[in-house]
């Protein structure tokens, strides 16, 4: 049995400060493009393709043909995300194995980030009825984002000890929401004054989408330069003479076998798959829900998301402080309870009721960053040293292995009911199952099984 850790948290290091900037960089794409703008924009492009003579405010009831399969334009975004997440589940498992064996993991982080940023920037070219280009670029950008996060998350274990990770992870998430909020604010101003600048709504949306890709690429330079001295981990169990690719496959097989030795890690991963699926689907569907179901104009939805971003900054910092008192495990459990309340309120909120919509946004902002940040730091305590990227690839890949289920359910419920309300309430099951499973994880036992020091507050 491992002894309880006596290591105290250190003052913030320069590596930790550099690490935060990648949250800042990629959150611009996640917020402006993936969460707020691309969902309704791609839906409108798809509707123009399927129903070229559709009157404003009318519902498009004609399906698109995707490889011969009929797809409602309102479901296209969710099916696209579903495909991207299934593909990621296959690819990202290998990314972590390669990253652990790579002598320069920071180069991998930057390479994936810049490839994703390029795809995000090229979304500017999506116009008219060209929904195929938009859907393809969403898949590429999502895959590159997930691959970069595998490497990024694994670096947390190397720059923060067991008593620092809740704080560092929470601050990184908070920093990301602040950066994403700043760019969203600039795009909000552009949206308000687009006519004064001689732009139509579609062009102002495309410029905002382009700005997110450029932001992602530019700010990735800071973590790349600040962490470039990091080298590959040592102690991986596979012979390095096998090479990067061959050895990575061997290492993946070894990881899957090795996971059987850590039952609490497996149980945490299973719980995370469910409640994170619910979180990701709520985030991804909230923009189109506010616009299409609740009847708010795009400007209002953008303003509410801007409000959420800045609330989420303080929410993530608050959750980090609460975790320092009662432990991250309990804090995440309480957060899952609040997420369940979120979907109930979203189901009953009346159309065009701005006050209730703002109250819902406030609640989402408070729990949004905290649950995700603390889940990341909790998992980091449950994985063996020297295999961080490999295990975080399972974290990202297994997340995507089921997160397609939430978007698929959402898309299917909408396709059959033509109501986003029934689609959103169906997500409650993910939070209920995830919360029950997480409540059964014995964190102290799991940390000791992985051979890691136990934090002062579990």
TrEMBL record:
The UniProt entry's coiled-coil ranges are: none
One CC-aspect GO term: plasma membrane
InterPro entries listed in its UniProt record: Atg22-like (IPR024671), ATG22/LtaA_families (IPR050495), MFS_dom (IPR020846), MFS_trans_sf (IPR036259)
Q: Which domain of life is it from?
A: Bacteria
Give the way it sits in the membrane: Multi-pass membrane protein
**Places the protein is found:** Cell membrane
Q: Which GO terms describe its molecular function?
A: transmembrane transporter activity
Q: Where does it mainly reside?
A: membrane
Q: Which UniProt keywords apply?
A: Membrane, Transmembrane, Transmembrane helix, Transport
Residues of the Major facilitator superfamily (MFS) profile domain: 264-458
Q: Which parts of the chain span the membrane according to its record?
A: 76-97, 109-127, 133-152, 173-193, 205-227, 267-289, 301-319, 331-349, 355-374, 394-414, 420-438
- Record carries keyword Transmembrane helix: yes
Q: Which PANTHER family match?
A: AUTOPHAGY-RELATED PROTEIN 22
Write down what this protein is called.
MFS transporter
Q: Which organism is it from?
A: Intrasporangium oryzae NRRL B-24470
């Amino acid at each position: 049995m491992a002894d309880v850790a006596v290591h105290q948290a250190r003052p913030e290091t320069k590596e930790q400060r550099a690490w935060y900037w990648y949250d800042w960089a990629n959150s611009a794409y996640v917020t402006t493009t993936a969460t707020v703008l691309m969902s309704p924009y791609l839906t409108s492009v798809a509707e123009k393709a399927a129903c070229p003579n559709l009157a404003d405010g009318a519902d498009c009831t004609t399906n698109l043909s995707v490889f011969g399969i009929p797809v409602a334009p309102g479901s296209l975004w969710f099916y696209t995300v579903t495909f991207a997440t299934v593909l990621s589940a296959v690819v990202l498992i290998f990314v972590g194995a390669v990253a652990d064996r790579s002598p320069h993991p920071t180069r991998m982080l930057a390479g994936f980030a810049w490839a994703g940023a390029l795809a995000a920037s090229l979304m500017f070219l999506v116009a008219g009825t060209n929904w195929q280009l938009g859907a393809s670029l969403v898949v590429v950008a999502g895959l590159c984002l997930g691959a970069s996060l595998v490497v990024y998350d694994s670096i947390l274990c190397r720059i923060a000890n067991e008593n620092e990770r809740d704080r560092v992870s929470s601050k990184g998430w908070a920093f990301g929401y602040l950066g994403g909020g700043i760019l969203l604010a600039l795009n909000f101003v552009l949206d308000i004054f687009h006519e004064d600048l001689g732009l139509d709504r579609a062009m102002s949306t495309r410029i905002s989408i382009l700005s997110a890709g450029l932001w992602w690429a530019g700010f990735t330079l800071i973590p790349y330069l600040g962490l470039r001295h990091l080298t590959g981990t040592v102690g991986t169990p596979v012979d390095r003479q096998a090479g990067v690719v061959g050895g990575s496959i061997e290492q993946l097989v070894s990881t899957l076998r090795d996971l059987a030795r850590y039952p609490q890690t497996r149980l945490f991963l299973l719980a995370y798959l469910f409640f994170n699926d619910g979180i990701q689907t709520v985030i991804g569907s909230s923009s189109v829900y506010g616009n299409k179901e609740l009847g708010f104009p795009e400007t209002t939805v953008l303003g509410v998301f801007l409000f959420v971003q800045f609330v989420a900054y303080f929410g993530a910092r608050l959750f980090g402080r609460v975790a320092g008192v009662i432990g991250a495990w309990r804090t995440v459990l309480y957060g899952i309870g609040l997420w369940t309340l979120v979907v109930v309120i979203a189901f009953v909120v009346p159309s065009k009721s701005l006050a209730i919509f703002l109250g819902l946004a406030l609640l989402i902002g408070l729990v949004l960053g905290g649950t995700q940040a603390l889940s990341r730091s909790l998992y980091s305590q449950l994985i063996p040293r020297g295999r961080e990227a490999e295990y975080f690839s399972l974290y990202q890949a297994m997340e995507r292995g089921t997160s397609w289920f939430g978007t698929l359910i959402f898309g299917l419920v909408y396709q059959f009911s033509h109501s986003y309300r029934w689609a959103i309430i169906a997500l409650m099951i993910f939070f209920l199952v995830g919360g029950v499973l997480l409540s059964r994880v014995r964190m102290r036992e799991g940390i000791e099984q992985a051979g890691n020091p136990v934090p002062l507050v579990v």
